[in-house]
Amino acid sequence: MNKPKMATEKGSSRVLMLLGQLERLNGEAVVTDIEAIRQVTGKILHLIQTQEKTRKEIMTKGSSGMEVILTSLENTRDLQTILNILCILNELLTVGGGRRVGVFVSKGGTAIVLQLLVQSGKEASPSEELMLHLHSLLAKVGPKDRKFGIKARLNGALNVTVNLLKQNLQNHKLLLPCLQVLRVYSSNSVNAVSLGKSGVVELMFKVIGPYSKKNTTLLKVALDTLAALLKSKMNARRAVDRAHVPALLAIYQDWHRNDTRHRHMLIRKSILGCIKNITNIKLGRKAFIDADGMRILYNTSAECLPVRTLDPLVNTSSLIMRKCFPKNRLPLPTIKSVFHHPLQHVPASGPVAQLYSQPPGVDDVVDESDDNEDTEVDTENDTENEEDEKDPRNDDIETDINKLRSRQVLTRPFEELRVYERFFREFSEDFQVKPPRLKDTPVDLDSISISKAPESKLELELVQGLSQLLLDASQSVNGGCGGEGPQEESGEQAVLEVPDTAALLPLHDPDLYLVMVKGTCSVPGYTEVAYPDYFGHVAPNFREHILERVYGVQRSKIFQDIERLIHPTDILDKVVYDLDFCPVIDDGECLKFNSQFESGNLRKAIQVRKFEYDLVLNSDINSNHYHQWFYFEVSSMRVGVPYRFNIINCEKSNSQFNYGMQVLMYSVQDAISGSPRWVRTGSDICYYKNHFSRSSIAAGGQKGKSYYTMTFTVTFQHKDDVCYFAYHYPYTYSTLKMHLQKLRALRTPQIYYRQEQLCETLGGNCCPLLTITAMPESTGNDHICQFRNRPVVFLTARVHPGETNASWVMKGTLEFLMSSSPLAQSLRESYIFKIIPMLNPDGVINGNHRCSLSGEDLNRQWLTPSAELHPTIYHTKSLLQYLTAIGRTPLVFCDYHGHSRKKNVFMYGCSIKETVWQTNVSASSSDLQEDLGYRTLPKLLSQLAPAFSLSSCSFVVERSKESTARVVVWREIGVQRSYTMESTLCGCDQGKYKGLQIGTRELEEMGSQFCVALLRLRRLTSPLELRNHHTHLLDMESDLIETRCNITCPTTYVMEEDEPAFLEEVDYSAESDEENDPDADHAHLDPSELSQNRF
Ligand SMILES: [Zn+2]
Description:
11% strand
């Protein structure tokens, strides 16, 4: 016999004795002694009502009190006993929060009470008191029992409650608990459909009635129930058909007018909740517009704005208005890039073939129906299994152990790779012929031709080409490219002085820049040069803090957007710049725009209001999306007036512009007066989903998607200025070529430096390959041998053109490598550096964000790169394959990137163990052997580089990244230390630069600290006898070696977006799905909790 534990304890209390009696009565085959059980339950109830401690005794852990009580309830047919027990349960569950209800639910209490409800409902005239108690109890239990809705439906309880409600609409005492239970029923989507069929939507409208301050609690519950029901599309349609949308708007206005002291904010919010759910369907949005909903919510919101506690109303109104805002067409003839580059080989299945195979006349800007919606039918089987949903984070992690094993396989015959031997002459160089004239030469293009034995046919061509260009350039500084370009635009040709950046920027030379531009092939055939690239950029000395977001900025921007609809006559809609149809209106009343220069990207500018412009970015060439990078010129501005700029076709769902990042601006006036520099600028910056629809062609087949707006405001300081705006510090291909020229000039007799053309790009540009190491100490055998056998470090950058920060980091690396410091010399003596500083020159030149001219992301082509379509990747991979084939697999491979959604600088690496740790793969990770060496370099960087954050690093191999450089070089080439180094576009939230936006100085520093880390890595990885030469570093090394052995837990898998919640909800989505709905969780909170959550 299973006796209650406490009944046997010494001095057991009265209530426990009574429970013991109750248990014995339950044990009888037939409960005969009704009187006895009535008496016992009555006494227990009395004790509970009068003594708080008795409740605790019953509910104490390990007690079987709840079971005994529920068994009695299940067994008895006596009304008085049932009422006693329901009262006991009500008392017990009133306090104690979730735990007590949890016990009740786990002992099957919900089903017992629901069954009792259904039985009683069958009686001709059920006891009102019984119904009241049953519903009161269910109202307490329902919200905490996840399966409540299903249990209620399966037991047939829904109709009992509904019928009771229908018969007792005036009986407020009974109405409230019934509605509370109904509210829980309705939160289940299947129940909502079925309740709708039973007329509950209509019933709720009867309960709600017109504005009245009586029974506000009841009203609130009825509104919440209605809102839950209206999530069903069928119910929403029913409400639209019966003209409830104007009714709800009228009720809302009523409350808005009468609730002057804002005591009933939650009721007002619940009314909006109903409208919000109805407008999820197309008919609802139409009814809302027809009922003048936009104006009503706009005006009421405007009146709510000054009262901060009413923010939830403004936010929900804004959400509804954005959703109902008629979708606009992006003002373009096609979303395909303005420029097309015909490819020689177009694979039929590739993106370019698909893009250009559409029959003429197909509109790719919007879908046929402007407001896409699948049939408005409820799916009956959704949302009931919500707890079965998988953790989405794990989906992308590679679980195939075989794929996780780094296997160095020679996939190509060596004969095929032998052609790459010519790029590795350092492996066979014997230096028996003294290299001619390697002395320090000043910047003189002639010096190129004096390099030792012609390095390659390609280089010779380059040399010849350059000397010819120099002649052209000497003219072009005054005329030609420079004269037709921006100088003319500013109308200040005579006054313009070139700032002497050469003195401040050792690698910069405006004249040389123009020479370089001449040799750069762009698809549009650019002839202009942007001033910032010509003058150069001197990093400012002041700090540029991460911008603190002003509260309410997004909301006010969205309201300005909504005003376009409310006051259409205020809108100018004047096209002032257009790459598609060139001639545009210029009445002198607007800004002038231009982006027709290297790396420029602006497709169209439309003056919306006097000082507000909508800007449209061009797609990557041979593609119809990937717009994020921008670089354009503005002139003819007025001084001291805030101009609002909106880039209206952004694609990503969130941006660092929501987290303190500013755009970059370059003022030519400032440059001329001695400050040639890009500065972070702009106020009122935010990024949100807008009302321009995105066609399914542009959205990868998904219908009903929208674009995002990035908005910023700038007040210009100088009259007659020419200003440039960019997403990040520009770094053009011509700049790279100029820097390489200047770096070459830094050679000393100690430096071994070679620059070759790896290959030609699709656009006809050269992809440079650098080899940097130290000259051998002597031509003696030992020294030559040491020279040839230095481990290889392979670095690449700028596969993604929009990630200009990667080039600045690379510049820092290259400058360090060419510097005369002892550390640099030591580093050169340690390694042979193979560097491809720009893997995607064509993308950079043409202002792409992500792709090459093949219209593809080159960092997704590493598994099977095509020599025709992805030459730079094909040949880079071949170089690596060659190295593996001759047994010279690099020690380190690193590809420099920029990250648009995270702060700091960090690395992604590859580790089997850390990947397995993140998954539930049964293979025990302890069986896997793995050297922890992949962690050393990031660890060193975190100690050396202030911008670097170890905690942001990840070593997980994702499926979606299996064709990236990092994963392929690790898996196929067998480089254990294969990394992607990501630099923030925004700034840092840790370390020395915490709170600051990142600038070129910090990026270049990162690049040089990367070199220092490599030097330390060399000391750690060299054989012991070699290490002893560097004893000064040994302390730190042993410390590092120790920590290498102590890694017990893996780094966390880093999600794409990791920004903390914001003071102001970053409501960049106007979608109504619960995940993105900031209001969703607040439905049942009391006002105090609500305000706490909000402010
Ligand atoms: Zn990238």
